[in-house]
Specification:
By secondary structure, the chain is mostly helical. It folds into 2 domains: 42 residues, no CATH class; 114 residues. The protein contains 6 helices and 4 strands; from the N terminus they run H-E-E-H-H-H-E-E-H-H. It has a two-stranded antiparallel ribbon. Strands 3-4 form a two-stranded antiparallel ribbon. It is elongated and about 105 Å long. The relative contact order is 0.08.
């Protein structure tokens, strides 16, 4: 039975990822070996699922931008549903994915300012902590999402307009002849009501 406060804080989120996968470990002094007890997918579960949902949304948006615009204007329901989908994609790209990467890198990978990605040497005269690498990845995520957002917005605005449904063309009528009274009678004879019935003007 899960602990109440742990489940409330979503610290134990069940997922369908494997508990361990074969993984190459370079920590040994001689060569490398396959460590079959790597558990990083479970620790990066929310990051992987959020990235997968974002990728699926990008593919769907790309397919939608290839379809031509409908001839009729969009309804309020379609507009609101589209705005909600755009908001969900922006929440994933600008909020969830960077946050989960920071959590995974700081907690599981232990990429903090106390460990260094590269120390000073003859070429680089300063230390590069691993926390700087984490921040650089977050900046890259924001840049990629921003480019994708602008690109999809431009594709959405530049969609070709679909052709309207071809209406049945009425046969050309012969030019009206006669006086004003005869033309008025022909117009009255061709009138129909809202129910499709001919409008009669006879007193009987």
């Amino acid at each position: 039975m899960p602990i109440f406060h742990v489940s409330t804080l979503a610290l134990e989120v069940p997922n369908l990822l494997p508990r361990s996968i074969p993984w190459i470990d370079f920590a040994k002094h001689k060569g490398f070996y396959v460590n079959s007890h790597s558990t990083w997918p479970r620790h990066a579960g929310r990051l992987l699922w959020a990235s997968l949902l974002f990728l699926i949304g990008i593919v769907i948006a790309f397919i939608w931008t290839r379809r031509p615009k409908p001839a009729e204007p969009a309804t309020w329901a379609k507009t609101i549903a589209g705005a909600m989908l755009v908001w969900a994609m922006m929440a994933l790209g600008y909020g969830t994915i960077p946050h989960e990467w920071l959590t995974f890198a700081n907690s599981y990978l232990n990429f903090n300012s106390a460990s260094f990605l590269m120390t000073r040497n003859r070429i680089i005269h300063f230390d590069i902590p691993r926390s700087a690498f984490v921040d650089a990845v977050v900046t890259g995520i924001y840049g990629v999402v921003l480019v994708l957002q602008v690109w999809l917005f431009v594709r959405w605005q530049k969609r070709p307009v679909a052709e309207a449904a071809s209406e049945t063309t009425e046969p050309e009528t012969e030019p009206e002849t006669g006086g004003p009274l005869s033309r008025l009678r022909r117009r009255r004879a061709s009138r129909v009501s809202a129910y499709g019935r001919p409008v009669t003007t006879d007193a009987s």
